[in-house]
Amino acid sequence: MPLEPVSDIGARLRSFPSGQIPPVVLALVAQLAAGATLLALRLSGAVQAPAPVALVAHGLLAAALGACLRLPAWWLPINFLFIPAAVMLREWELPPPVFLGGFILLALMFWTTFRTRVPLYLSSREAGEKLAELVPQTTGVRLLDLGCGFGGLLRQLTRLRPRATLDGVEIAPLPALVAWLRLRGLAGCKVRRTDFWRLDLSPYDVVYAFLSPAPMAKLWDKVRREMRPGTLFVSNSFAVPGMEPDRVVPLDGAGSRLYVWRL
User: Are 155 and 127 in contact (CB under 8 A)?
Assistant: First the structure.
């Protein structure tokens, strides 16, 4: 399949009324298009390459097509490695339970990432320190970490803001379990496995999120509806489209910063 028609396919997919095509669908399109292109070249006699070279070529083409389809940058190495890794695993002749176990582990780790387009991002120690500076030191302040992952940020905040009440929510089962185990017994800290879209944000003085660009506009609507005047919404690295933050706190690393809005 020629490169230009693949770009046209991507444009048509992105023009759907929902405007919410999951990246996994675009990644599948890139993989299929890469395979079809190489197969057509091979059948026509234009390219006759050894199997290892063909695998690398497939990976490079799939990654390039993914870029044309405007997949997020973190999907491109997945596109590159997917087929070569699958072939290598097949050559190793691993028993079927290994594949089943790997699938279950990935499902427990990433859960609904394909639908929500929110990967597992872990907040840095510096982000925790800068966030703590934004949290009032008064007793009874409540903070919510949306998508708390393995609970590292909350554990750090229990030391930096011991008088605060800290809540974390995580929808993926394995990170939620790890966070619960790490934080159980710590006073004023609680982790729940749930979808944060179902939560009421009104009890919280500070809401922290490290998600992705995909949900930010919808999340901002929820924040404006539910959070009280004077409270803080803090987003790590991802701004709300069209909304100027009240403050930007730089962090080490390209593009890393805390965007702060006071409601």
Answer: no
List the domain boundaries for the chain: 3-93, 125-262
60: region left, alpha or beta (phi > 0 left; psi from -120 to 50 alpha): alpha
How many angstroms separate the CA atoms of 70 and 80, rounded?
Answer: 15
CA dihedral 38→41→43→47, nearest 10 degrees, is -100
User: What sign does the dihedral 115-116-117-122 (CA atoms) show?
Assistant: negative
Residue 113 phi, psi (nearest 5): -55, -40
The Cα–Cα gap between 206 and 160 comes to 15
- Structural Rg of the chain based on CA atoms: 22
Q: Identify the pLDDT of residue 200.
A: 95
End-to-end CA distance of the chain: 50
Specify the residue for token string 């590292």. Answer: 152
40-54 burial, b at 16+ Cβ within 10 Å, e below that, comes to eeeeeeeeeeeeeeb
- Can you tell me the mean pLDDT for 150-166? 93
How would residue 96 be classed by pLDDT, with cut points 50, 70 and 90? low
Cα–Cα distance, 228 to 150 (Å, whole number): 28
Higher pLDDT, 85 or 164: 164
Backbone angles phi, psi at 172, to 5 degrees: -75, 130
**Which string of b and e fits 11-38 if b means at least 16 CB within 10 Å?**
eeeeeeeeeebebeebbebbbebbeebb
Does domain 125-262 correspond to CATH entry 3.30.565.10? no
Kindly report the pTM of this predicted structure: 0.66
Distance, in Å, from the CA atom of 90 to the CA atom of 35, rounded to the nearest integer, reads 18
